[in-house]
């Protein structure tokens, strides 16, 4: 199936999840994250959840990596050119919602993509080759292209990958792994 159809279907499927469904699915995903081997990781990039799209709550993920003495990095989105810039999220960093409802850091220290060791990637659906469909603006394809080759890219989703996204293209960067409830 094509990205545009998949985007519609999985946006809708996510909206249909109840709070109870989400709590259970999230817990399963968190447990898999706590089992990751992270001894060589210093800087972890995490997305700050968009409530209107019922994304997984990443706050427990942030708390976990902080408890393991890892530094957290989050992004600000520029919708004029669909690019992301990245900042350290300290315990006292202020967060504000941008006009799309995405939480973003205020007055934080900028970080280059080359410093990132692990990136958690939001997605609507992925396939068995670990390609993904997002909200369709190409933010993450552009961002991941700047990351180091050995930076680990892990997708998070409530839904099991499908067999194949038929129109993946040369810009699409395959993830190393996708965590979904098992
Ligand atoms: N938490 C989180 N942050 C993220 C992403 C994400 O998937 N999740 N993104 C992943 O790439 C980028 C943001 N992508 C977004 C794309 C569209 C809309 C949005 O509100 N779209 C409106 C229509 C907007 C318009 O074009 O005018 C909509 O769908 O209603 C929000 C975020 C960067 N930050
Ligand atoms: N590195 C890039 N350079 C230039 N254009 C790009 C790049 N990556 C993606 N694009 C373009 O961005 C648009 C959206 O890409 P795509 O449909 O793959 O988005 P998506 O992965 O679903 O969205 P997102 O990454 O925002 O969650 C496409 O037209 C694609 O060609």
UniProtKB/TrEMBL annotation:
Cofactor: Mg(2+)
Name of the top EC class for this enzyme: ligase
EC number of the protein: 6.3.3.2
Example of a GO MF term: 5-formyltetrahydrofolate cyclo-ligase activity
Keywords: ATP-binding, Ligase, Magnesium, Metal-binding, Nucleotide-binding
Alphabetized InterPro entries for the sequence: FTHF_cligase, FTHF_cligase-like_sf, NagB/RpiA_transferase-like
Protein family according to the UniProt entry: Belongs to the 5-formyltetrahydrofolate cyclo-ligase family.
This protein's name: 5-formyltetrahydrofolate cyclo-ligase
UniProt organism field: Polaribacter marinivivus
